[in-house]
Structure formats: C-alpha cells, structure tokens
C-alpha cells in the first residue's frame, strides 16, 4: 500500500484489533519516524512496518533510450520533457533502514520481494520483531520459512499492487489465492496469511477454511476516508465494476495489478521495453503529473485487486467491525 495509506489507516484498524501497517518503501527516514510517532501517540497496539527488498537495478542506457522513445508520443501530446530516472523512487531495505527499525522497535517487520541479506534479517530479529514476507509460489514460501520468516503471506494472483515474486519471473504460472493458500499451508511449518481477492467477510471465511491463520486486506480500504489516494484513483474505483484489472510493468518495471487505463492498453499491460524496477516510475512521473493536472488518470498507476468491485467507501474501523460481526467474532 506504499503511496496509498499511512498511519491514519493503521490506527483505525488497530483500534478494532487488526494489525496496522505502515508502508515505508516511498518514505524518507523522517517520514517513517513521523508515521510511527503518529501511530504510537494514538494507540498502544502492535505495529507492522513494511519494506521492499529489491535489488538495485542495472542501468542499461540502450534500454532506457528505447523506453523513452516508446513514451515520446505521449510526452509530445502532453507537452512535457522526459529524461532518465530522477526524483524519488522505491527504497530498498538497507543498513540505514535496519538502524531505523532498531530505534523504532515495531512489533512486526514485513518485506516484499523476498528478504534482505541474512545479516540484516538477524538484526531485525534481534529487536524482537516478528518477520513476515510475501510468497507467490510454494517454492517461495518454503524459501521464506527456511530463511527466518515467522509467518508467510501467501499472495494470490488476484492481489492488487506489486507481485511479491522473487524466485521466479514466470508471470503466467502465478497461482490464485484459493489454490495457493492450502498448498502453502501444507508446505511450511509457520503460520500462513492469505492475501489477494479478499474484500469482505466471505473472503475471510474462505481463506480461513483453506487453512490460513489470518488474512491481509488492502484494496477494500482504498475507497475509505483514511486512504491517501487521489481523486482520480477514487473515481476509478467507483467504476471498478466496469473496469477490469490487469498485471502490468509499464509503471514501475515490476508486475503489479491495477485498473486498466490507456497507457496499460497501449504499451502493455506487460512490455518487454520497460526498464527494471523501479526506474519507470520516475521516468514516467512527468506524464502522470501532466495528465492528472488535466483531470486524467491515463498515466497513473491505479492499483487495485480483482475484488475491487466489492470495496465500499466506508471508514476502515467500520469495515473491520462489520467483518468481525459477520464472522461471529464479536
């Protein structure tokens, strides 16, 4: 949920007994500290800090030139200049991030795209934090359990945002949540958290029936007041019943699921020209900014999972209470 939520959503669901999370991949160290301070001032509940742990991308000037050429018609149309990647990107977990965790002491630290190097994992463990990461295959789940995860997030293909893939790039073999969760449950000795396509009590009940110990929910909270997405993203979610989602790499260089828009249709959804993650995000940011100023989401990543039509514009706490009541938990 990097760029889509912060401490306010984490506080809201923590007050109802769920685990609140703060996405750190697009925040500076000061930004992370501020979010944690906001959370701690509001509640004594446990907190999860989530980090990306991708490898630094290789810079290929020829590939970048080809990508800029593919974007040139759009830059001409919108009257903006494009150059190589500049500005903020997605920060990978490193020693400085680890020092921040050591100071802030979150109860849970979760990762996307595998795990950081073993020495950093051990430093995180030494803080007393529980360690989670996402798996999109049984092989990835086994690897995570073998390398120190206290629980594995089984991310089905339905999930919105970036795929947590790290031991495969075979997008066509990615497994749906209903098939993935019981296989992961059978394969690993640690708790399993189901993610992908879960947006109401029915989805939660189904995941638990498949053997999951918990669920991770994202898209269902996006229309609510605590999410920090822009008005164009909100408007797109309102039309989700009529707009399919697809996996695309044209925004960031990694497969991620979002509502289909113009640039996804015309350049992808998957493009062999896209530079590696996270370079395309910075390269395309002038297009996104210009289009959004004109009232268009044609060049914006409208991240959402396949259950987006089930999402409702309700406060996060109300959603959690509704789900808990429907499941007979209160």
Q: How would you sum up this structure in a few lines?
A:
The protein has 330 residues and is α/β, with parallel strands linked by helices. It contains twelve helices and ten strands. It has one domain (7-56, 63-82, 89-326): Aldolase class I (TIM Barrel, Alpha-Beta Barrel).
Largest sheet: 7 strands, parallel
How do the strands of the widest beta sheet line up side by side? 1-2-3-4-5-7-8
Look at the structure and give the CATH class: Alpha Beta
The rounded Rg comes to 19 Å
Tell me what the structure shows:
The protein has 12 helices and 10 strands. The chain is globular, with a radius of gyration of 19 Å. It has one domain: Aldolase class I (TIM Barrel, Alpha-Beta Barrel). The protein is 39% helix and 13% strand. The relative contact order is 0.14. The chain is α/β, with parallel strands linked by helices. The strands form 2 sheets. It has a 7-stranded parallel β-sheet. The mean pLDDT is 96. It starts with 6 loop residues before the first helix and ends with a helix.
List the helices and strands and how they pair.
Elements: H1 7-14, E1 20-23, H2 29-42, E2 47-52, H3 61-78, H4 95-104, E3 108-112, H5 118-126, E4 130-135, H6 138-146, E5 151-155, E6 161-162, H7 177-187, E7 192-195, H8 201-209, E8 214-216, H9 231-238, E9 245-248, E10 256-259, H10 262-267, H11 279-293, H12 316-326
Parallel strand pairs: 1-2, 2-3, 3-4, 4-5, 5-7, 7-8
Antiparallel strand pairs: 6-10, 9-10
